[in-house]
## 1
Amino acid sequence: MIWQLFITFARIGLFTFGGGYAMLPLIQREVIDRFKWLNETEFLDIIATAEMTPGPISINTATFVGYKMAGFWGSVLATLGVILPSFVTITLLTVLLNKLKDNKTAQDGLKGMRPAVTAMIITAAFSLFSQSVTRPLDLIIFLGVVVCSWQNWLNPIIILLLSGLLGLVCGLC
Amino acid sequence: MLWNLFINCFKVGAFTIGGGYAMIPVMKNVFVQQKKWVSEEEFIDMVSMVQIVPGAIAINASIYLGHKLAGLSGALVATLGSILPSFLIILLIASSLTGWYQYPLIANFFKGVRPAVVGLILVAGVKIGKGILKSKQSLVLAFVFGALILWLKIHPVWLIIAGSVSGIFLGRQKR
């Protein structure tokens, strides 16, 4: 189990380009669809918790899933797994990376990934939508968040806290 | 040096809420302005460079800076320093608070938070996608990729690979 966690998160780490949200579709595919370590609601809660606590989403998710599936060592191995690909690449290839930065082919490759990453993130949002938007209130929150975040009116932490409070207050009524 | 590196990365990791991108400006403040370990120019170069490498940008940045300042042990220490705060906090939440999710107040709070998370993800995706609107080819590719994920359940890894190959191919053609 611990080994499986390590390998899975190393694979997720290896194929995440563009940081943060780009990792979510991969986590969704591996952790929810394939191994069923989490369901979609738990996944959304982890992303929310990750946004409201320090540190990158990838690390937070790895730690959380690792702990849930195999306790302390599970969390250690999953977290190490997710950073291993970056660690190895950067420490081994520092010199090469300095050249690659201005290399046309590398730039083209990165640019080509962008449509894929965009499609991945947007479809991830689609598939999570039905799980989380079940009441009229949820739809109001969802639309409000889309507007506030698109216009950069509020930062994500405030958005999440306000949405949570709204859910809490309406739950009492 | 190593201890100093560890403490400063730990500080950056502990005080930046809101994911990896939020860490970069804080990191710049510590490494460039306060400690003067790297120049502003080097830092900006570094940020664009670590995006070629897979993984979280903030973690990549600390691995790179640690390696640059103190070799392999520097890279290790900087990485540990910057992931330790989030690791410990999540460990605490996972070990003590999971039961709390069942508690009605917390459950209602998270019920409100979930649609918000989906909204944030959607906006993040569209914002990343804004850059590709300039070229018809990328726009078509994005739609094809989206259809492949939704209907054929293609693994995202293959799309990343297909995307980069097509990017290199189209780039070659243009030149």
Note: Chain A has two domains: 2-132, 133-173.
## 2
Amino acid sequence: MPWRWNRHVQEAVAAYLFLLPFALSLLIFFGYAFVRTVYFSFTDYNLFESPSWVGLQNYLAIIQDNRFLLALRNSIAFSVIVTLAQTALALVLAVVMNNRLRGITVFRTAYYLPSVTSSVVITLMFIWMFQRTGVMNYLITAAIVYRPVILTFLGLTLAAQVLQVLWERWRGRPAGWFEASLLFVSLVLAAAGTGALWVAGVTEPVAGVEPVRIVWLNTRRTIPEGGGWWSIPLPLAAIMMLNTWTTAPTFMLLYLAGLQDIPKELYEAAEVDGANRWQRFRYITVPMLRPVTFLVMTLGLIGTLQMFDQVAVIGSAAPLESVITLAYYIYHNAFPAGAMPRIGMASAAAVVLGLLPLIAVLIQRRVVERK
Amino acid sequence: METVAQTAPAAGRPRPVLDPAAAARRRWARAALIYVLLLAFSLLFVGPFLFAILSSLKDNPAEWPPRLDPPQLNPANWRAAWRLGKAGGGSGLFGQFAPGAVVNFDVTYFVPEGRTPHPPEVTISRRVPGAGIGAVVPDAFAADYAIVSEVVETARKPAEGGVLVTYSFTIRHDGQGPAVDRLPLDLLVPIGQTFHSATLAPNRIERLGRVQSWNNITPGLVPYVFHNYNRVFNENYSRTTGKNLFLAWIRNSLFIAGVKVLTTVIIASMSGYALARLRFPGRNALFIFILFSMMIPGQVTFISNYLVLRDGVFGISRLFGVDTLLNTFTGLIVSGLCGGSAVFIMKQFFETLPRELEESARIDGAGPLMTYSRIVLPLARPALGAVAILTFQGAWNEFFWPLVALTAPQDKLLLTVGLLNLRRAYGAVALDWGPLLAAAIISALPIIIIFLIFQRYFVEGISFSGIKG
């Protein structure tokens, strides 16, 4: 029918017009750029002279460059560890947040604060907190000083809880080991008990503790110490903490939306069957959230592989080898301070960086499908 | 108070059942415990910000042990700063040292038994304010116009193990010179005689307690409390144009973010609609290509993009008489018209809209453009809001691409790149944390305020990009 055909053409033309600006910018600033990066990786381009073909030379050069290998190692370690940590933290936050309590949105707002702030600002605050006389070291010092008090408090809580649960059960009332009402009483009792012991002088803060002066950033220490290739530089570990802290809240929102989609009936049925809290979480929540987990991990891997800002802002505050990532390595080779740009090597490294998220997603898909 | 639906007791449980009062008690306790947990997490996420804001007021944010009560938060000092600001000839809010100023200042020392009290030696130093970018030497120093009276002992009070001796002196402006911004003060006393208190708390105590030093004893309230913030704005000027750098950076970032929000909202809604609703050859391929582009880090493609801007987007810019788009706002805008994720969000949203409206419009004879602008777009407000907010946040916080595409001159930088320059300027020797923290907090404030106002859109945006992905 000519009329229908006409309709289709009209629709397609409209679609192309609608898409024109976006497609054009995508083509120039992504498609063309991507192809050119691959091309540059086989040339000796330096931004000024016209490029000439050198085959695989750049790839051989980066493989022999110790800094590249370190960057690759750091990027992969960073990506894997941060993705796992932030996914776990996001899930925990979302489960706590998934309670219909008054004022819960206030907490959601508060949690999301690190995620809206720019990485440059966050990194500046972070360098400040992790300096030798910073808040982090102060908190560690405080934990050492008050260790006896803290341990007493925890011990008393545990004892009070066990006694109360046993008492309740003896009276024929159901009580799990983490029963909240009892735990609340236990905490209050333990606080009172610890206070009394402190006043009585039985448990006291340790006197004469040397202030902790861990150098977090400007150091070549690793975790585990001296582990060679398989150990993580301390500054990188500090950035991992930072990144987990900033991105977990975003993923918490995704999990929260996922949690609210799980039918309540599932939990009710499980409760009738006598499943406890942990079992319900393990056998209902986690499997039902699998699509969200896949998404969160994918976004996490993509995001963490791009880590650049933190390295750039930390700058001279940490040895480059300890924090360098692939993203920074590429930038560093494209615009080296006081040297000719090594576009070929930068592009070769860029191709590797471009492959990483693809590989990561493929592996992840395998794992998810196998389950 | 409502509590969790999950905790409602299920009927027919084979376990012993609690009486209603006990069950209610348990629900209450559980809610209370969850609040405690929520509060603990809040401390984890908000605590660092609050502590950074507090510390940004301090003279030395890197002090050990970190205190929670800096003198800048002490109302007694606010009153003193206000009074001294007025005494110096300025206003209570913003002080100065102007002709006609008469500034009375008291300082009290503790003198241990067996020592003779000694009046402090008063110096008005020619201190240059800190070392920002292109820090300018002030054209006038208070030292050139200040006349210091004799230091007299005005009170002596016995104290445990010694005496507290109060000295007073007056600093006048000679009435000839100009008004000066700051009146710095150094006091020197013999060793053993320790500082006790003064009209205004000193900024530093140095040389084993012998020297007490004030940045400005006629500050007025605002420069006293927000000393570091003042420094950020007053110490950073462009060497070529003399513009106030920090203000310029904020303006640039606002401008670029605003333009990007506009272009993104327009382009993403058009593209998202086409992808979600219109049928055309190559739709799936294009969608996969967009997803692919979202997976690839910007560091993979920036070299070519840098060259494209350098050559004026294939020479097109030469038609407008511009050789290169590097280091221009135009270049930054052209290269970041619309992100793939914004298109993705819009597409996801349009797919959730019921088709009936569009179909009835089509039956009425409306073409795609008409349907889009009259029917679909008005319905898309929540998604557009989400895209706008997320784009603004992304543009405001963007760092890598501006660091490549817009690096000079100083007063054209965006705020994030500017912050990196500040970090270099104040971190050349040892990090001068006061202005750095203050600058970080100022640059975080707009986005935090926008987030607090529009947080619903943030949350929706995240959900749109997530759930159906």
Note: DSSP finds 16 helices and two strands in chain A.
## 3
Amino acid sequence: MPHPPATADPAVSLARVTVAFGAGAARYVAVEAADLSVAPGEFVAIVGPTGCGKSTLLNVVAGLLKPARGRACVQGADVSGVMAPCGYLFQQDALMPWKTARDNVAVALEPKGVARAEAISRAQAWLTKVGLAAFGDRYPHQLSGGQRKRISLAQMLIRDPRILLMDEPFGPLDAQTRALMGDLLLDLWSADRKAVLFVTHDLEEAIALADRVVVMSAGPAARIVAQHTIDLPRPREINEIRLDPKFHTIQRAIWNDLREEVLKTYQAQAGGAA
Amino acid sequence: MSRSTLLAWQVGVAAALLAIWHIGSSVSIFGIYFMPKFFFSTPADVLGRVWKMFATGIVWKHLWITLTETALAFVIGSVTGAGVGFWFARKPKLAAIFDPFLKAANSLPRVVLAPIFMLWFGLGIWSKVALGVTLVFFIVFFNVYQGLRETSPVVLANARMLGMNDRQLMRHVYWPSTLTWVFSSLHASVGFALVGAVVGEYLGAAAGLGYLIHEAEGVFDVTGVFAGMIVLALFVIAIDWAVTSIENRLLVWRPQPHQQS
């Protein structure tokens, strides 16, 4: 597939982005003045305690949410409405339950004006890439959670978006399936480097996958508190890289930043309950 | 319980009921029939009458009329119900304005509308169709309205992120979702279409199964009433079987086709 000409513009850039819900006394600030930039082809993971607004930030980039203040840009253009260069992988099941796996993947090409017959054959090729070539005629409910995620991945990638937004995509899966999905993702990603913004609560997953890990503080008014570059060699294999001594050094360093925020969240919740 | 034992039990229950009916109506116990023939007829007479109705072919015309009314009521009621449900689900303000009127209309026992419909549409099939439509409309309307408002926001957001425009969202998300809810109310709405047709015929008509039963009742022909009821029951079973097979084909993507009704 042809690559767009390389530009100096970052794939994603957020400048002093603040997101708030409600107004007046009920106003709740989810994210406060977040600055973040993702270079083309860079894999960035965002970690933070539960409810810190990681997904909120992702939705701003996707154009699903409007920030109260600040500026969000995708490939140098201001975010307005749903952004075409972005693909989004949701945490929950997002496949159309009334379509077969193949149709779910093929339908993603319809907005691009691809003819149906061609869309179907390209969808079949993508099913093969995610290891589900023989499952094209199954409906989502006839597939396991991991298989549905693979179909969602194919549905997102078939459009060839330049930027991938992933909201705890492997959260609902069991540990083994998660590792396999992570490997599959890295495999597909390294074949054609796209910018990735990957939200997760799992620090190990973040380190194993990403080039850079961004740590967010506890909400409300969550901020970006730290950024760590992960200079582990690629290609990586999730279950192997976890045993690397360097992995543990990095993990300890990030956990030092993260622990404080996680504790704050727990204390806030305990305070709220008392 | 195995399939054959179950069947044996079911046949046994049917035989026992028929035997009680037969003995009660044709064997005198201490000079008393505890199910007098005049009120209960006898199983043999009733089955003989059903046989005669089919053998002479007089029943076909009535079955055809009732079937036509049921089908028309179902189609018109479903289309309008789905249409309005769809419209209201996408226009919450409109729905809020009409909410009390719809609730009031739905709470009205529909049978009381039958005489009005007779006046408006005459004694032909259309007064029965109208009665059936008022029943079917609300079932489909409420199903589609509720169903669409519960359309998974994630599926919708995902479709948007795939770049779908309004027309494509309609075709790939809203429309299939609406159809699902129409189909999930299929059994109930076909049943109510039939109720509308038969009740309408019963109250005033010149043909149809409801008319047959009413006519027999008018001349104290209890055998005729029971025979009519049996034909009606067979008719309903046949329709229900047809609906189930259609449903199984259309809702193949759903985990359990009979979860909702």
Note: Strands of chain A lie at 12-21, 28-38, 43-47, 69-74, 77-78, 86-89, 163-167, 195-199, 212-216, 224-229.
